[in-house]
Amino acid sequence: MVKGLKTKLETVATWLLYSTALVPLLYSGNFFYPFIVPRTVFFRIIIEIVLIIFLVLWYKYGFKEKTREILRRNYLFLILTMYIVLHIVSGLFGASWINSLFGDIERSWGIYTLMHAYLFYVLARTFFNRKSWRKYFHALLGSTSIVALYGIIQYYPNVFKIELFNSGPGRILSTLGNPAYVSIVLLFGICIALYLSFSSKEKNWKYFYWAIAVIQFFAFTLTEIRGAYLGLVGGLIVAGILRVITSKSKKVKTYSAGFVIIILIGLSILFISGKDLSKNSIPIISRLSAISLESSTSITRLIGWKSSLNGFSENPILGVGPENFGVVFNKYFDPLFYTYAAREPFFDRAHNHFLDLLSTVGTLGLVSYLLLIFAIYWYLYRGYKNEKLLKKEFQLFAGIFVAYFIHLFFVFDDINSLLIFFGIIGFLEYKISEDNIFEFSESESKPTQTLFRIPVSAFFIILVVWAGFGINTNIVQSSQNTVKGSFAQEMYDLESASKFYIASLSDSRFPRV
Question: What gap in Å lies between CA 461 and CA 455, rounded to an integer?
Fold first, then answer.
């Protein structure tokens, strides 16, 4: 009876975690920032419910005795925990603790959302087994495939006879509202499709996964994001080099080396020649040829990067706190910025994840992230050497992480890509370590063993319910009231508009609008 309850709770938690694969698909015009608020609130609520289940299971059963030993050898868990702790410490000593904790409604980020992403990783590493991870990857593949198909239909309304938001030629927004977010989500989707094809024993399924990868790649070319294109090229080069190193076949080594050399020569010719190939029919070539340090995008990014370095020099250890980049940018603002980006109201990110960390979370924050990168590749190498990863899997994941980190060199993370990134590294850690970081005992604990766990679990459950309900309710009300105020303003009903705007501000005790 009791064992049945444990199994049921674990099953519910597992299925709720599967549902996070829907995050890239959720958006609604009823919200201010329709591509951010609905999915962030949904993701937070799911994680909070699963966390309550986790706490109930811990209270009733406790962890197995080997838990401490398991935790010590799961290095990604330890480094990610350190990464989160450093964000909290930096926020406490930064320019604005509230800002660091919740950010603003536009990003719906801050330590609070980052903590939920971390908890997703912890909970997935607790409740997912081998079959669960495979099911979750299929859920992600389905989600990213819809993103791809939606974007393709969006780009070709005349072909499909369907009019979607922002239909027509141009960078596809798909269901994410930003082509940069679409590009990295599709790259991850391609990676997942290829991984599933490698691990499938059925030929028909292999062909199916390859077809999905081709569709997603086509949609990826429609995003026209140069940073993601560079990431793809970098990932292919790394995968090709690893193929040369690990392959025993001279033929494969020769072809792989030739492939890498062709890419390098092609890039060299593309950049050295300086030819404008913007009208080239191949999107990746046309966009890469347009890369220039003299372009408006490059100049505004360089201005932001310069501000990051100046801010870092003043606060080198812990930075100014997460979500406080505006403090740095405003202090070291270069008026030249508005010559190239007159419509840009503010710069709240460095548009370089590494420099953003350096200026907001300081040297310690950046070092912890670099340690995470090192640990990922150490796991990949260890998995390959111990034959827990196939050669193709080793090359594939090494390549996709290179692509992801190159992408982050030109933009910043969002909930969609961070969720998939944490999911993939959690899966790799599980596959290579062959354990869950938290495992509950099989039988219910004796009353004397639960004396400590009763008040602790009760406190955190109450905290999760209170904070989750208050924060998520406020951000939903604030977002919807802002939309209602905007509509009223368009109808010249200024009295109603004022009431809605005032209600929006009063609802947003956290986070701020």
Answer: 10
How far is Cα 297 from Cα 442, in angstroms, rounded to an integer?
A: 57
pLDDT digits (tens, 9 = 90+) for 184-194: 999 999 999 99
Query: What CA–CA distance (Å, rounded) separates 416 from 20?
Result: 10
CB neighbour list of residue 226: distance below 8 Å, 6 or more residues apart: 287, 288, 290, 291, 410
Structure token pair of residue 157: 């309304």
What is the rounded distance in angstroms from the CA atom of residue 438 to the CA atom of residue 452? 18
Residues near 486 by beta carbon (within 8 Å), at least 6 away in sequence: 32, 497
How many angstroms separate the CA atoms of 423 and 495, rounded? 47
- Residue 270 CB contacts under 8 Å (≥ 6 apart), including other chains: 277, 285, 288, 289
118 CB-near residues (< 8 Å, 6+ apart): 80, 81, 84, 422
Measured distance CA(19)–CA(427) in Å, rounded: 17
Structure tokens at 208: 């199916």
Alpha helices in 247-352 (DSSP H): 250-273, 283-289, 296-314, 325-331, 337-340
Residue 459, SS3 per DSSP: helix
Residues facing 504 on adjacent strands? none
pTM summary value: 0.92
CB neighbourhood size of 367 (10 A): 16
Q: What is the pLDDT of residues 16-33, one digit of tens each?
A: 999 999 999 999 888 888
Give percent helix, percent strand, percent coil of the chain, each to the nearest 5.
75, 0, 25
Helix, strand, or coil (residue 104): strand
